[in-house]
Every structure is written in C-alpha cells, then in structure tokens.
C-alpha cells in the first residue's frame, strides 16, 4: 500500500511513522489482504446497486446539467474508538441541550439578552429568526428534535464543533444505506470488529415524534412533509417515511380548518398530530411567512400556536442554526447549564464587530468566510484556495452587510484512507455529522455520516459540491452502551406445541342417516 | 389513504385501460373498414369522422379547413401515435408512466417496469402503425404490455384500497370505452339498416376486444350487430361487458369506502347496474333501443366520475390565492 | 378626542371560493395617549374569531371560512379616546450613541427595507442632516412631501422605494418607507405605524369623515421621558405634521409587511375588493384651536 501521509494533518488510521494506530490494525490488515483489485470490483458493484435502487444524489455540473449520480460511498470505514465516542456523545448532548434552551429563551424571556451575553440586534437580524414563533412554546419545550452538529479534528487530533445544523439536517438516510451496503459489499471487514448498530434511528425518530404529538389518547398521526420529488433530498424523505411507517405528504395533502391540521384522505379529512417537516420556515405558511410559497399550508402556524399539531423541528429553530450564533454556544452552555463546554468551537470571528471585520479582511487569504444564514456549504469561500479577484469581490460583499458573515481559521481536517479509482489507498480529508434525536431524552446514533472530500487536498466535503461519504463505525464498548440491547429472551419465539401423533383408536362408527326433506 | 395518491392510482388504471382499448378499437375498426367496404352502392361506408368524434379526438385544424374527410391512415395515426392528441394511445401511456412514477412506493417494482418499458419499446421502429401490416404490430405490442401490467398487478399488489382504486380506474375506463365502441358498431338513428356491413363491423370489434370465443360459447344468437351489442352491454359473465365492468367498479369502491352505504358513486353505480339488468331481460333490444341504453349509461358514468372525484379525491382543488 | 371608527371591507369572488383564511390588524392600540374602549368584528359568512398579540404587540384577529362562498364582508367597529402627546425632546446627535438609547432602539435601527442602489438617497440623507435628531425628523416631514407627489394608483402594496423615486410620487406607505431608510441611516431608530387618521379640515364642521387606513412613523428620540429614557415620537411625512390626537394607532413594525390591516389566503380565482373607513368624532369639537 503506498500513500504519503502528510505531516501537518492528523490521519486517523496511520500514525506519523506510517504504522497503523491500535484501533485500526485489524482493518489495515484486512484491506491488505483484500488488495486493490477486490476493492475496485466492490466499488463497481456498489455503483450498480445504488443506481438500481435509486440511492442517488443530484449533482449539478459546472455547466448546469443535473445528473443522478450513485451516492459516492467510499468502501473504507472510519473507525471511532469507544472512548472517543463517549466524549463526543456527551459534548454533543450538552451542546444540543444548550441550543434548545437558547431557542426557547429567544422566543420568550430573552434572559441571555438581559444578562448582556448576546445582543438582541444580533438575534433580530438573523435570517432565520421567526417573529411568528414569538410566545409559542412547543410540547415539552423541545425545539431541536433532529440535530446534526458537524465535527472536525484539528492537526492534533482534537475534536471540535464546526457548525450546528438544527434546521433540516439531512444525510441520515445515506448513513443507513451506507451501513447496509457495506455489510453486503465487504462483509469480511466486519469480521474483527464489534460495530455498534445504527438501524434504530427511524424507530427513535418515530418515538420522539410520538412523544411530542398532542393527543388526548390513542395513536398520534404522524406525517413526513416533503417539498416534493424535485427536492434533492427527496430520496431521504421517502426513505424515512417508509422506515417509520408513516405517510409522506406534500402541501396539497394538508389543510387547516378551525386551527386544526388535517390531511386529505379517501375517507375525508384525517387529523394530523405531528409533522416532521423537511422545508424551511420561510415556506411553510403563506399567511405568516413568504406569501408566494406554493409549498406551504395556509393557517399552519395558527394550528401550531393553538397547540393542536406538533412540528419538528419547531418553528423558529433556525435562529440557532446561524453561524454567528454559533460563536456564542460556549457562552450558552455556561449560562443555561452552568457547565464548561466539553467540545470546543473552531476559532471564529464575528464580522459584526468592526475590529474583527478589519482584522479578518486583512487576512482574507488565510481564512474561511461563511455567510451566516446558509447551509450545505453554500457561499463558503476558502481563502487559501481562492484567487485574488474572488477575494476582492468577497471583501466588497462582506462590507455591504458584515453582520451576515463570519470568518473561521482554516482547520486542517483529519484524513482517513480512501480508495482511489485504481484500488490504492490515499488520504482524504473528512468531517463527521452525528445525528441526535431529542424526544423525551437526547439520543445520539453511534457514528453518523462521515463526509469525505474526494479531491486530493480538498477540504470541501459537502455532497452537493462533489464530496463522498464513509460508513462510520463506533466500536462496541464493554463499559456502557448508549442504546440498551434488547434482552435476547424477549425475542425468543413462543415454544411450538408438540404435535404428538396419537394412534387411532377405532370407535364404533354410527351410521349417519339423515333423510333430506323433499325438495 | 391520501386522496392525492388514490387519485393517481385511479387515473393510472384509467390511462392504461384507455391505451389498451383504444389500440383494440383501432384494430377492430381497421379490420371492419377493410371488410366492410361494400362493392355495391347499398350499405354504409364507415365514417372515420364519426369514429374520431366518438373517441373524443378531432382532426387537426388543417384538415378541417380543407373539409376533407379524414382517411383511414390519418385516423389511425391520430388515435395511436400522435403525441399531440391527448387521447391517443401513446399519450395515454405517457400519462400512465408519469402517474406510475408518482406512486412508485405503492405499486410493485415489476408493475413500474412493465409501464416504464413501454415507451422504450414504442420507439422501436419495428413497432409501428404504418407499413405492411397496418397497425397490427403496434396493437399487439400495446396489448401485451398492458396485459403484463394487469397480470403483475393482480399477482404482486396487496389487495388494499390502493389496489381497489387502481382496479376501479381500469374497469371504469373499460366500461366507458366499450360503450364508445358500441356506438360505432350500432347504426346511427335514422340510418338505413344494411345488415351485413354493420354485422361485419360489430364482429370485428368483438374480435378486437377478444370476445369472439366467449360470444360463441354464450351461444345466444347469430352474430348480428344487435346480438353482439347486446352481448357486450349486458352479459355479466363476460368480464369486459359494460355491466360486468360497472359491477367491478362498484365492488372496488365498496371495498375502499369506509361507509359505502352513504357513498354517492356506489349508489349511482348500483342503480345503473340494476337498470342494465332489467333492460337486459325485458328491454327493447333492437338497434334503437340499444343505442339509447348506451347513451343513458354513458351519461350516468360521466356523473359517477364526478361523484368519485368529489367523494374520494376531495373534488377539484382550486389554486391558492393571496389577498 | 373621542372617535367611533367603522371599517368595512368587502370581497366579491367571480366563482365561489373556499378555505378563506384572514388575519386582521385593525384594532386601535392602547398606549400612553390612546385607549380603545369598544371593539367589535363581524364577518359574513359568520366565522369563529381567534385573537392574539403578535411579536410587535399588535392585536391580531384571525378567522377562516372553509365552505364555499362568493363574497366576504368584514365589519369592524371601535370606539377610541386619544390625547395630545407630550412635546418631543430635542437632544443632541451624540445622545444617539448612549447605551440606553441603543438598547431601546434594538432592531428598529437595522436596515429592513430594500434601499435603492447607487447612492440614490445620499442627497436626501445629506439634506436631512440637520442640527439635531428632532430637526432631522421634522425636516424629513417637509422634505419628502416637497420632493414627491402624493398620488394614488402609481404604486401598489408591493412597491419598493426605488419605484417611488422612479415615479416621483406615491402614497403614505411609500413616503414612510423612504423616511425610515433615511432616519436609520442617520442612526435614528424608526418604526412603521399603521392606523387611522381623522383627516378632517382644520376648521372643524365635519363630524364624520370617510378615510383610508393611514401610515406614519415613530422615531425614537433619546433623553425624553420622565427619567430621561428614550421616547417614540410620531410624525407624518405625508401630512407634514406630528401625530397628534387625530391619529389613531393600530400597531407598528419594521415596515408595512409587519402590520398590514388585512392579510389573507384562499382557494379560488381573483377577487374584487372594496373597503371604506368612516371615522366619526363623538366629542364636541373645540372652536378655533390655537
């Protein structure tokens, strides 16, 4: 296996001397045994399976043509040892709890503003701050039902949070499909590892939605609300609806009457209790948000305010998704939880502040500039990779409205070996998006979606910009397990009754003579 | 189930049926035209104009200006492969394909493949309506693909309300299309009845729907136009008769409806069925009488269509307006 | 002054419409200088009314009519008492930098209205840069009606300030949006106010006037109130005046969209709208006010 491992980045498999780290030794041995040819063959099979099953991603080429590509799953899994996962898990849960408090605070008492920690004008100027959500408290005070906080590792291998995604984080279906595909393509890799399962995610999501649905008794009706087949994540919407066993609805299927949300069925209107929505606030209700949104349901906010329907994630949660707000999360953890943050932020500068703005623009070629209200890597400019003209343009744009921009130090993301087209291994940069579900408790699925930049040296991992993904393995830990394995006895089938054949005993047969009545 | 999905399934069934029966109709009338051209002056020549009108297709504007009656070739092309004609076979199949795509989660993968492959097949040059065999290869191909679709549906689809709506759509369209065929086969009011050409046409249509053997086995009468029309209208035991199709729609809707006794379409279809049964036994079953029955039933079906849309699909939805 | 207000809106639809959802912001607010004593809303067809206070504190009346109907009438009636506001403070420009001011100003300092490009407003900003914030505010109330003609029919609800500049004229909504941009450029917090104006001629003699809903603005001036806290001062750039007792406020926001009198969505074709507001003065008019 030939690959040059960089001295300035942290490789998760190979240490500085090229020797595999302890947790990866079995993996490396198995990869060497398989060899380049098998890996290439497995890759071809993977592509064929994904295309046939429709596990694809829309990719827009530079010319603008949109094509269905098979979702690019790299065959080498990324292993996270149990002890590291424990830290990540606790840090994330802490962070999500703080973010949830923040959202509630923003739309009610504003304590964190009164305490002078976060300026109100910052919050009121966030593009996803929803005035319509003011004063509304959703069931159990949970706003961030689904959260995907992106994590990276710096050159020393330390875990840091890169950004928080609490609007409509996607990628869960790819995580689940990746695991399934891996077990079919290279099952031998699993041989020496005890990998924690992840397929309980849909059940967890379903349970969380049930726990927040306002029902007096009986079953809650839950739906997944999609903008439709034209949306690039539509596959995930259908996948989750199917896995949870709930209806997938579009806006025309829903109607609000008398502050109650219904869906149109063949037997008339059926009440909807909880909606897992995969569209942004701006589009959900033309009466409260964008009036031109054909994807919305008029009156939905009324039903939400009346408490007759739960919406996940809650309306207005996007305010916590903002990259400027991200800078305050460590302060939030201290303020709401009275704890020290377990996971650090990446060093970030709020360009709202004139001093920070000038300092950042002076070093614009060394920093990463991000618009605060976007997601999916949209609008991000990596200074060292951009040309002079682009940077001049960027500086001018930022000056127009600095409150909508932040700057971050470039993190040399950690690398993991990835299969190149000829079957050899090469180091590529990765990040991690674990998925958390907040229902009655915060639960984090072991692992998450590892996104990998497929271009050599590239730090852009977003699939919409040409990135791929890896199956993420969190190894079984003897000390504790996040999700209790169900006791084996519960699954034992009921004992079959024994069929003992008795020998026939003759009995005097009574002749049957029954005259039929005459016709 | 979701009204929108049920609506798609209903129309998937209708479009597949429409495509199939339009193809069969083309075959039958083509045959009849070949046979029915009288050498003598007496008798009726088949008017392709009338066929188009009954099929709900009209000749293009250019032809109207010239006021030339459409030829056989033109009519066949218009009904079979003209994508601009909403009722042509290819247009119906294209709509069916789009509908199947929307409900892919509900129908089986094999059903999807059966429909999806059709338009690929139609692009094949050997499947056409022009050329030596006339429309034969085209009609054969469409018949086989649609039969595959229904066959796979009957084997792989769960018998729930999704299946009921798909089935209802298919049988509804079947009833409608057979009615249209009968109006072609039966003489128009006031027409001088020339028995043999009409009979030839009726038989050709019967052959096109595949009912020749059934007719003979039912053994009711000599194969005149009247007898054939009667058979296709009333005979419950023949699955493609109008009565049998309407009965199937009613049965499917009864299964899908939570409260069938209060269902307007179910009630209407039951009434039509009862009427058909009655007339079949004691009605005036000469040509004029049968034509009248066709018209009455056609009207009732149209009303039933509206009832179905209203009850199950929430009626026609107007667009949202911001004020 | 004591007013009764009667605001009637009628929609006529060509074809019957369904699922007609509406939100009304029509109730006179209760403030330091105004009190709403009576308030009724009736709809035809009848509907159940819901009410809540929105983010800006404006009272919102909501209702929905799901069955098919060909017309909708909304009947609003109210009684309100107004009093003349206090004299506005006249601090210096430096007072705008005080922390107490910035805290009270909040989001009303932020640009929220799309500004015409290429420095089109720079001249007006310069011209209104007067000796004190109060003078700037009052100056704009002369400057804008001097520059722009009040004319209906050339702009509409969705018009931008760029449209106003291009057309050279518009209505109160446009004037207020322009003033808000300029005031915020000066660092003066300002907000859009929706309400009713008893637009009777000054010599009195009219008890009842037919009006439209009106838009004016409130600017935040520092060092005003009893304890030196900032106060919101109402002025009207359309009518060159301060917002006195003839002004009945409904609510405020950053711009028009935050406080529209009626907002609605329905299923169906286009509608014909007719609306009228009748304000009647109920207390005896004083003669020849100084």
Task: Summarize the SSE layout with pairings.
The complex is a heterotrimer of chains A (519), B (323) and C (290).
Chain A: H1 25-53, E1 56-60, E2 66-70, E3 73-80, H2 82-106, H3 111-114, H4 120-124, E4 146-147, E5 150-153, E6 159-163, H5 172-185, H6 201-212, E7 222-225, H7 234-244, E8 247-249, E9 254-257, E10 260-265, E11 268-271, E12 274-277, H8 300-305, E13 310-312, H9 323-326, H10 329-337, E14 344-345, E15 348-350, H11 354-362, E16 367-371, E17 381-382, H12 388-400, E18 405-409, E19 415-419, E20 425-433, E21 436-438, E22 442-444, E23 449-452, E24 468-474
Chain B: H1 3-36, H2 48-55, H3 61-66, H4 72-80, H5 89-102, H6 109-122, H7 136-156, H8 161-185, H9 195-209, H10 212-218, H11 225-234, H12 242-256, H13 264-282, H14 287-312, E1 320-322
Helix pairs in contact in B: 1-4, 1-5, 1-7, 1-8, 1-9, 2-8, 5-6, 6-7, 8-11, 8-12, 8-14, 9-11, 12-13, 13-14
Chain C: E1 2-24, E2 34-44, E3 50-53, E4 59-65, E5 69-82, H1 99-105, H2 122-127, H3 133-147, E6 149-150, H4 161-167, E7 169-170, H5 172-185, E8 190-197, E9 208-211, E10 213-221, E11 231-236, E12 241-242, E13 247-253, E14 262-267, E15 271-281
Parallel strand pairs in C: 6-7
Antiparallel strand pairs in C: 1-4, 1-5, 1-14, 1-15, 2-5, 3-4, 8-10, 8-13, 9-15, 10-11, 11-12
Helix pairs in contact in C: 3-5
Keywords:
heterotrimer; A: 519 residues; alpha+beta; Rossmann fold; Dna Ligase, domain 1; 5-stranded mixed beta sheet; 12 helices; disordered N terminus; C: 290 residues; C8orf32 fold; 8-stranded antiparallel beta sheet; 5-stranded antiparallel beta sheet; 15 strands; globular
